[in-house]
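Good morning C.,

I know you're traveling, so I'll keep this short. The sequence:
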Amino acid sequence: MVVTIIAFIFVCIWVLMDTIYFSKPPKPEVLWKNNKIPTTIGSNCWQGSLKGSCVDYVYASPWDMGLKNGSVRVEPNATITIDFNKKPLDGSLQVAEVFEDGEEEFIEVNRNKMTVPDRKGIYVYNITSVALIYFHY
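The tokens, ready to paste straight into the viewer:
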């Protein structure tokens, strides 16, 4: 009886964790001086322990998707920090500046930090990463 109850509790916790934590892709938290910069999630594929899915969120150009939440004013040469609720694989974090014509140019990211240009303007960035979650049973 005790083993059955413990097994039931374990299964409930596992399903709850999979539903809440593992079944959703990591979303970056982008910060400047502890102020959140809003992000828009794009297309992704994600595999939890119980189910997987691919979602196509491309409903506009990357430029327009980046402007969806409005802009945030930051200082020239500001350092922006990119954190994830699920740590990306080492070396998989990439950031590209997106231009209005659809072109992209990768920029340097060092330890989850990037620097914005020193000239005024509107800048949109595409942040990508790969994250793996390991399950131990």
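Safe travels,
E.
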